Task: structure prediction
Amino acid sequence: MNFVVFESFYILVALLLPISLIIGPAVADISIVILGLFYIIVCIKNNNYREFLNYYFITYIIFCAFLIFTSLISQNIFFSLESSLFYFRFGIFVLSFHYILCNYNYFSKYFFYSIILCFIILCVDSIFEFVLQENILSFFKDEYVKSYGRISSLFGDEYILGSYIIRLLPIACALSIINFKHKFKNIQLILIISISSLIIFISGERTALAMLLIFLFMIFMIFKKYQKLFIISVSIFFCLAIISLIGNSQLKDRILNNTPSQINLDIKNLNINFFSIQHEVVYQTSFKIIKDNFLFGIGTKMFREICKDEKYKTYTKLDGSIDGCQTHSHNTYIQILTETGFFGFLIFVTLYLYVLYSLLRKIFKPKTEYSDFEIIEIFCLLSFFINFWPFMPSGNFFNNWINVLYYLPIAFYLFAKTKKNK
Result:
């Protein structure tokens, strides 16, 4: 294949990554595998293997090797290896994306366009679904099943619209700030934040909404220069949110009524559930498993198997919930501790504490001006911070789709560090 054609296809796959995440997990996973393979070919062609020997990648490979080790000592080796054996592909994806960012100056701007195009399509479709209870997908299905108070847009039966938006929003904000210097750049940033916030809100995803509120608070604390813009954005969002609640009783019930009910909020008697009764049952089951497998865990993907054991089942009188057996623990930290044990948990917590320390330094020693690469670095740290905020439910840590969104900011972070060092 002509290398120019090869290179063009390589860049195109990277640019279409936000779209592939909408199409489905399989397409997104294929995309990162293609990017990884292309990067290996580029390294072979250029005889350049330095990136595979840097501190970050070596640390990551050690973590991957540890995941494989936990699978090898698990009760079902081959089943557990389905998650751990090829987990290294996400690290190579990071190196591949980092290479593109460093070597193609135009890429970040066009990647921003790709994200914004996806946001606009999802925004229009979500509003139609919110108002008319119909969206684009409903025209292709004879029976379109709706979930109470939730909007899925192009994600169909997967209610991950809010998760998709909030996990790409920090990158979108960073790229908007650094790539555009025109007189309307402030209005552009306001629109991105306020409209994205609205989509997250009407999606009915309470975890995504909590992540959004944390994100908005943190950027307000760090970026003194943009505080007025964020106040305007938040004001617009709250006005639109109030209108949405007034116009949709199902969303109102889900956000304002069901949430306090599910966590059994009883401030008078100091009685509060950890998220919900159903979540508590899963967490209690997880902690029973942790007691028996503290050091090395039960192996990736094994929670769904081990929780079937009779001795780990949990019962609560509050609503009759029993079993606590799910595909995963529904909290990243509990899942890591359950499936990889204390040593895996220690690695994960250490990385998060580093992120927290870095952000606290920015808060308590703020600058009035940040360089473009410092802005990227900060927004990536914010992305890590909200993605792994410990006090909320979460999806499966080893899920392919979510891992693309977890690792994408790492590529931008390493890009910013590389440019700063130069």
Q: What stands out?
A: Residues 330 and 394 are 5 Å apart (CA to CA).
